[in-house]
Amino acid sequence: MITAKDVSWRYGAKPVIDGVTVEARPGRVLGLIGPNGSGKTTLLRLLHGALRSPTGAVAVDGDPLTGLSPRESARRMAVVVQESGGETSLTVAEMVLLGRGPHLSTFQRTGADDHEIAARCLARVGATHLAARPFAGLSGGERQRVLIARALAQQATHLLLDEPTNHLDIRYQHEILGLVRGLATCSIVVLHDLNLAARYCDDLALLSGGDIVAAGMAGEVLDPAVLEPVYGIGIRRVDLDGETHLLFQPLEEAPA
Amino acid sequence: MKHDDVLGIAAQRRRTTLLLAGLIVALLVTGLVAVGTGAIGISPATVARIIGHQLTGLGDVTWTPPEEAIVWQVRLPRVLLGMLAGSGLAVCGVALQAMVRNVLADPYLLGINSGASSGAAAAILFGAGAGFGQYALSTSAFLGALAASLLVFLIARSGGRVTSMRLLLAGVAVGYALYALTSFLIFASGSAEGSRSVMFWLLGSLGLARWDALLGFGAAVVVATIAGLTVTGRQLDALAVGDETAHTLGISPDRFRMRLLVLVSLCVGVLVSASGSIGFVGLVVPHLARRLVGARHVRVVPVSALLGAILLVAADIVARVLLAPQEIPIGIITALLGAPFLLILIRRLHAQ
Fold first, then answer.
1. How large is the ipTM?
2. C-alpha span between A120 and B236 (Å, rounded)
């Protein structure tokens, strides 16, 4: 369980996250949704401690994040960030094995167990055939799957993902989110696609201008009356066989 | 598929161990040849026996006392300093390339050699640090290196963080400023003889090597740096991918980068004060090592250390033989060899 109470962040004078309180419950997937610039990624960074909120507090399973060592925090929370990996010449297998780092002492090498865990995690994202390839040579979608495999290899009880479906084709969007949904971890996912959010998130928090404007069960938050003013687009909701689908229609501009 | 080696990691480890063993043998052979080479040639076998005799007192004396003096007093410290400088500069290059995530980073990027050069110029031209006697030059150079890296550090650090971009820019700026200061000192002194020796020192030389405290201190620092960087190999891997990645893997990137900076500054500072600025080793050797063993730092660091030592000792042989009896500053050789090599690397990099 991750709880954030009254956290905030500002770049310069402009508040990006303004006193937000949010809770991610065990065994559930919490989706952070909202338009561009609403503060989704910043909130995620505050939650895993890449940014330290000057106000309020973040707690993981009841323990304040500030009291956890970086290593301990990495054992509890695995994070998939949007970082290109730059010029690294690590292979895919080596990249995934980095996820075992938080479980090893400084002087300890990765052992047969670690290699098996890494291989299993690669298989789970359908990337076994990539193991020997250089990470830098992969396509965006392949990279994303490898980074998710690395996060899985961390075997943390919490999984945080920043737009994990970026660069993925439609099949892998569903496979990856289905995988996340099937994990017993407490997961937090930043998502752009509201239909993916509808399908794979248990709870949703809708951000707008650095504030959470709606939070709760996915079905409640995905209410056209709530979403329309935030996104500025016409939305129709169709519930089909117990599944929520959203249809979008640009709003007619009122003549000035 | 073998069950215990699903990702081929164990096979890679065996290959690396073999490679390291091969490199150690190559280093020993290069070292013996280097000690034997010079105005008076001595066979590597005799060199080995003389060194063995000096260390253990065993074996029959089949050589003349002057030969023994040449091997033990003159050439061995020089070759040892070459090994230390080569391996130290190479591993510092590895660390810096990981720290700033730029494959063109080099130990001198931090302005350390410019600082050391200013210190050396002050010592040679104006007698700075004369109180340190025979260590006047190296002490003054070391203080210069220390001051430069402190300056870079203070500029690059803001709000308790050292970012890679700020570090790069601060290093370049401080480097240029101190380079100008060195030139200014040379002009201000008006001594042709003095500026010649500063020039010689700037181009790098192992000629000052002798059995002294500086060599011992250098050995301790270089060995500690190699060990420290090898042990933190996994953290270096993560840092080389990105700050945020390092953070999510349980490493504090800012704290780790600061620790690395202290270690690298100390190591480069000691080496530059002992051997002047020897360029290109720290830039080229890490690339060579990565081609051989891949990107994992736990392998790249020891392989770089051995490769750097071999390369520098070999370059020193060339420097002594090419225009014998005149000696060429070793920095010229490393640059002549290193620059075309770097160009090949750049072409390959683009081809990928």
1. 0.88
2. 25
